[in-house]
């Protein structure tokens, strides 16, 4: 990494943590209908699902605050709310932002929504923050520096994945809603202990960080998750001792031009990761041969 071309990652992380706390307060105010006179202004016509005034307000805040420090001529910006289909962003350093991951959960008042901000260098995350507003927690990591969780009182503590290392003892976490029949059959066939359900991807990964879950799986169908769904959660999990790969074991890459992350993905506490990948591939092949 060309450290002479950028600020120290630790200093970058301090800025991003401050921005993320501000954005979580915006989301919480909309969630409680304290802003905009209680009108979430839901637009159901968005291609990939509903968009709310909260998405836009948080997105505006994040971009404004980051661009005050990280000039757009040196840092690219890839945000769910401003993305337009294009070639890869030319800068080596790119911010990948989802101001509100789990919009449907936000609207349905499950509380299971999150905020994602990641800085990627040449396609791979080096700084990441995931905010869970309703839990009042901020998870953050920088490459090779570990993962930490922070609460509003300023208390920061390191966090690590579980030590469970037998497949039969592992807890799976998957989406409450985004599961087609093919994916449902796959997760039903995995020989794991039990299954937890959670809204946002950031929320799912936080359950692995908190040792409530051990494995997260995703499988694209008619649509696929996007760069902003995975970039921030990935680094958090890796720095906490876990693994985050495609089914074939290859790492994810971001800012490729096509923001869709097609195929299957497994994130885990790392102890049975390769075995889980092999099992998923075999099971999926059987499912598809029916």
Could you characterize what this model shows?
The chain is an alpha+beta fold. The protein is 32% helix and 23% strand. It contains 7 helices and 12 strands. The chain has helices at residues 9-31, 53-69, 103-107, 181-189, 201-209, 227-239, 273-289; strands spanning 75-79, 93-101, 114-121, 124-132, 137-142, 147-150, 156-158, 171-175, 194-198, 215-219, 243-246, 264-268. The protein has a 7-stranded mixed beta sheet with strand order 1-2-3-4-5-6-7, sandwiched between helices. Strands 9-8-10-12-11 form a 5-stranded mixed beta sheet, with helices on both faces. Strand 8, helix 4 (181-189) and strand 9 (194-198) form a beta-alpha-beta unit. The longest helix has 23 residues, at 9-31. It is globular and about 55 Å long. 42% of the residues are buried. Mean pLDDT is 90; it is low at 1-6 and 34-38.
Fold topology:
Elements: H1 9-31, H2 53-69, E1 75-79, E2 93-101, H3 103-107, E3 114-121, E4 124-132, E5 137-142, E6 147-150, E7 156-158, E8 171-175, H4 181-189, E9 194-198, H5 201-209, E10 215-219, H6 227-239, E11 243-246, E12 264-268, H7 273-289
Parallel strand pairs: 1-2, 8-9, 8-10
Antiparallel strand pairs: 2-3, 3-4, 4-5, 5-6, 6-7, 10-12, 11-12
Helix pairs in contact: 1-2, 4-7, 5-6
Give a nutshell description of this structure.
The protein has 290 residues and is α+β, with helices and mostly antiparallel strands. The protein contains seven helices and twelve strands.
């Amino acid at each position: 990494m060309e450290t002479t071309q950028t600020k120290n990652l630790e200093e970058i992380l301090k800025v991003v943590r401050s921005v993320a706390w501000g954005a979580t307060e915006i989301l919480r105010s909309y969630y409680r209908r304290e802003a905009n006179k209680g009108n979430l202004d839901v637009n159901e016509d968005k291609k990939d699902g509903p968009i709310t005034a909260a998405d836009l307000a948080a997105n505006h805040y994040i971009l404004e605050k980051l661009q005050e420090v990280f000039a757009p001529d040196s840092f690219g910006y890839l945000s769910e709310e401003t993305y337009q289909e294009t070639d890869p962003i030319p800068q080596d350093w790119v911010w990948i932002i989802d101001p509100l991951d789990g919009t449907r959960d936000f609207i349905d008042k499950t509380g299971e929504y999150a905020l994602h901000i990641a800085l990627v260098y040449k396609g791979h995350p080096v700084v990441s923050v995931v905010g869970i507003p309703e839990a009042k927690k901020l998870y953050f990591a920088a490459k090779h520096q570990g993962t930490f969780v922070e609460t509003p009182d300023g208390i920061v503590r390191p966090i690590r994945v579980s030590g469970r290392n037998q497949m039969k003892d592992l807890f799976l976490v998957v989406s409450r809603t985004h599961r087609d029949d093919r994916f449902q059959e796959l997760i039903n066939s995995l020989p794991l202990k039990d299954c937890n359900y959670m809204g946002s991807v950031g929320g799912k990964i936080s359950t692995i960080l908190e040792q409530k879950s051990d494995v997260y799986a995703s499988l694209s169908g008619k649509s696929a998750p996007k760069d902003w769904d995975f970039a921030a959660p990935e680094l958090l999990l890796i720095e906490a001792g876990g693994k985050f790969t495609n089914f074939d074991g290859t790492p994810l890459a971001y800012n490729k031009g096509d923001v869709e992350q097609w195929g299957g993905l497994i994130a885990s506490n790392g102890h049975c990761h390769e075995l889980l990948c092999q099992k998923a591939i075999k099971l999926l092949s059987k499912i598809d041969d029916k």
